[in-house]
Amino acid sequence: GDTRVELAPLTQDVLDAAGSITPSDDLQKISVIAHDSMGGRDTPSPGLEMTAAWIASEFERLGLTPAGDDGGFLQRYTLPIVGPEGAAPAEASTAPNVVAILEGSDPDLRNEYIVFSAHMDHIGIGPPNADGDSINNGADDDASGTTAILELAEAYSSMAVKPKRSMIFLT
After folding, report:
1. What is the C-alpha radius of gyration for the chain, rounded to an integer number of angstroms?
2. Fewest beta carbons less than 10 Å away: which of 3, 55, 152, 154?
3. Is 111 helix (H, G, I), strand (E, B) or coil?
4. Which of these, 149, 133, 144, 148, lies nearest to 39 by C-alpha position?
């Protein structure tokens, strides 16, 4: 028994979507997420909030459906409270996820979901290195993974015929 399955050739729509993912586009997005102004995106931090807002604006630009809290793209989660033993509990804080949906094109399959996820946070600011730089930008780690999610969202949303199943993009 031969168990090979013959796949249909890729459509021009799929080839064009895949072709929209370019090294220069990747670099542009990584440069935004890992920029010094984001302060290393510690959890929680103003830089993480700025990054989440930028990703939400990208999802909105792509025409994706918000899937976060209260009809928006941001989904807040509570951070655990950790403090020294015997100390008064610290005030709870939250951090953002950014979540969007691209609805599938097939009425029978659109309620099935494919999830693409990467975390956008990093470790923030630490002791300065030999060059005096104290920002841990996280370009090769978290920014590149988040950029991959943005690139996939952009490619799939650009297709004239959307994928059959719905897609969730979560950072």
Report:
1. 19
2. 3
3. coil
4. 133
Helix or strand or coil: residue 69? helix
Give me 16's structure tokens. Answer: 């064009």
- 3-class secondary-structure state, position 117: strand
Summarize pLDDT for 110-139 with one digit per residue, the tens. 999 999 999 999 999 999 999 999 999 999
Question: Helix (H, G, I), strand (E, B), or coil: what is residue 99?
Answer: strand
Q: In 3D, which of 109, 113, 92, 93 has the Cα closest to residue 101?
A: 113
Q: Encoding tokens for residue 160?
A: 């004239």
Asked if 37 contacts 132 with a C-beta cutoff of 8 angstroms, the reply is: no
Alpha helices in 62-124 (DSSP H): none
Check if the beta carbon of residue 170 is closer than 8 Å to that of residue 48. no
**Tokens standing for 150?**
């943005």
Can you give the length of the chain in residues? 171
Instruction: Give me 56's structure tokens.
Output: 């939400």
Distance between CA atoms of residues 98 and 76, nearest Å: 9
Q: Which residues of 134-144 are buried (b: 16+ CB within 10 A; e: fewer)?
A: ebbbbbeebbb
